[in-house]
């Protein structure tokens, strides 16, 4: 592990331990933004750790941002770190020379920019839109791709929440955009944004899975039944071993993404599908081992499992990414299938 990465993990975990308590996470579901947590992470340069300095980042690698995002997910941090990373990465992708500060998010939907720069369209499930200062929107203009930046106050917003209780709002846009807020982009802009989103959800799920495993193991060691801890029972040991194997595979998949300099489609597909596939059985084991207490909102296991169920569906679920893998593997013909598989 790079010394810089170790420092990022230690600093991020220390801040999250102090400021991202279960009470703070619960407060999000009541409509309260975790302002102090956001500001502290931002002041320490962690929100944009892996972005170039000209965009306000710390000049690190993409993996640095993914490391912060993963740490935040382990604590179920209810703030748009991933969305800010995606927006800043899109700004860098289109050659922007600056990046708007404050809270930002990304809207993926059907948006069209007319010749007179009128942006119209709608997007569902826009993460944390109600608390954002600006929204980054990939759009089309006469068949070409553009990235538009709009003020949150300029859009029509319908508040909605995910199964995890986090904002996943619907926005509708019909306004004229200033030319300074429009960036000409490569044709793959939408695909690039999707891959970035899948990268973030993969590392977020791996962080939440790792945290859930720790909670369940700690519980099994302390919960007494028939005069001994339930971790002594063979059935429980088998369940924990199954969960640990799935979590280990997920962590390995997420680690592979942290080594990338760009979101390579096939690598992202492998990671998103593998980690997403682990969510179901791991959540099942976690709640079975913890029993009734694990199903209550009072216990913070739900902060992890409810987010897992949400994140696995965002930016393509495992079935969709597995179909992409299948098509890609078959594209070069039967003679090349095994050599390609073996090379991986």
What can you see in these coordinates?
- The protein has about 350 residues and is an alpha+beta fold.
- It has three domains: about 1-80, Butyryl-Coa Dehydrogenase, subunit A, domain 1 (Orthogonal Bundle); about 100-185, Butyryl-CoA Dehydrogenase, subunit A, domain 2; about 190-344, Up-down Bundle (Butyryl-CoA Dehydrogenase, subunit A, domain 3).
- The protein contains eleven helices and ten strands.
- The chain has helices spanning about 5-20, 20-30, 35-45, 60-75, 80-95, 190-220, 235-260, 265-290, 300-310, 320-330, 335-344, and strands spanning about 105, 110-115, 120-125, 135-140, 145-150, 155-160, 170-175, 180-185, 225, 230.
- Strands 1-4-5-8 form a four-stranded mixed sheet.
- Helix 4 (about 60-75) packs across helix 6, helix 6 packs parallel to helix 8 (about 265-290) and helix 8 packs antiparallel against helix 10.
- The two termini are about 20 Å apart.
């Amino acid at each position: 592990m790079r010394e810089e990465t170790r420092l990022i993990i230690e600093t991020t975990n220390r801040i999250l331990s102090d400021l991202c308590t279960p009470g703070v996470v619960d407060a999000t579901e009541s409509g309260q933004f975790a302002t102090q947590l956001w500001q502290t992470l931002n002041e320490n340069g962690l929100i944009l750790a892996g972005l170039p300095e000209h965009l306000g980042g710390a000049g690190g690698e993409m993996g640095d941002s993914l490391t912060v995002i993963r740490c935040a997910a382990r604590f179920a941090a209810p703030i748009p770190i991933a969305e800010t990373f995606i927006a800043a990465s899109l700004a860098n992708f289109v050659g922007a020379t600056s990046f708007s500060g404050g809270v930002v998010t990304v809207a993926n939907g059907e948006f069209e920019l007319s010749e007179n720069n009128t942006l119209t369209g709608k997007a569902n499930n826009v993460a944390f839109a109600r608390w954002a200062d600006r929204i980054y929107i990939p759009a089309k203009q006469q068949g070409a791709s553009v990235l538009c930046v709009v003020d949150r106050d300029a859009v029509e917003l319908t508040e909605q929440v995910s199964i995890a209780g986090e904002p996943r709002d619907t926005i509708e846009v019909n306004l004229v955009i200033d030319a300074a807020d429009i960036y000409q982009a490569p044709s793959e802009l939408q695909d690039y944004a999707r891959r970035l989103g899948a990268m973030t959800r993969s590392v977020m799920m791996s962080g939440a899975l790792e945290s859930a495993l720790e909670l369940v193991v700690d519980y099994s060691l302390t919960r007494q039944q028939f005069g001994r801890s339930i971790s002594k029972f063979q059935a429980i040991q088998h369940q924990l071993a199954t969960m640990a194997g799935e979590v280990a595979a997920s962590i390995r998949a997420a680690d592979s993404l942290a080594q990338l300099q760009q979101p390579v489609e096939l690598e992202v597909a492998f990671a998103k599908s593998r980690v997403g596939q682990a969510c179901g059985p791991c959540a099942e084991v976690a709640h079975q081992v913890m029993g009734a207490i694990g199903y209550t909102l009072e216990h913070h296991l739900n902060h992890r499992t409810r987010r897992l169920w949400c994140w696995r569906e965002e930016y393509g679920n495992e079935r969709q990414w597995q179909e992409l893998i299948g098509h890609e593997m078959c594209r070069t013909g039967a003679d090349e299938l095994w050599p390609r598989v073996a090379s991986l």
